[in-house]
Amino acid sequence: xxxxxxxxxxxxxxxxxxxxxxxxxxxxxxxxxxxxxxxxxxxxxxxxxxxxxxxxxxxxxxxxxxxxxxxxxxxxxxxxxxxxxxxxxxxxxxxxxxxxxxxxxxxxxxxxxxxxxxxxxxxxxxxxxxxxxxxxxxxxxxxxxxxxxxxxxxxxxxxxxxxxxxxxxxxxxxxxxxxxxxxxxxxxxxxxxxxxxxxxxx
Length: 202
What we know:
This protein is an alpha/beta fold and 202 residues long. Helix content is 45%, strand content 11%. It is built from ten helices and five strands. The chain has helices at residues 23-34, 41-52, 58-65, 71-75, 84-93, 106-115, 128-131, 138-148, 162-170, 181-190, and strands at residues 8-11, 97-102, 124-127, 155-159, 174-177. Helix 2 packs antiparallel against helix 3 (58-65). The chain is globular, with a radius of gyration of 17 Å.
């Protein structure tokens, strides 16, 4: 177990909770292409980044892309990472508080967590579209601490992007690169968050 006991586990969304780490390339652009949008990836990413900072609504973003789109239809293109619901449920059964820190449009984040029932598993959602800053900006990590009241040293963070993990460590968090649910379980056991054997008391 680490020197600082963990009281909050924070998950990234894209590439951790949800299967696709490159959501622009793997979900958004294919969806736009099916609707006839031929804008280049750089332009699409620029508009997406602005929207994910809360500078425009999803309706305004679809209009900039020149398509008639639907948030529910778009979000249907996402899948959960296999094993994530079970990991979240196991952590909750052990009394561990859970949060998500994600770069995303606020509207899309709400659709996705409702779609997959994650609101019942994750207590705190800190989304770039709501707070106006994106990881790895230090302000994003500060906003999560402000909203949860947990000491930075008591946070364990999982993200698939190394730069976001580095920024979390610089903020005083415990953090690891997410490479899959099995690894996340092992990291959680090492921190005393899950029993060493399934079904064993903590």
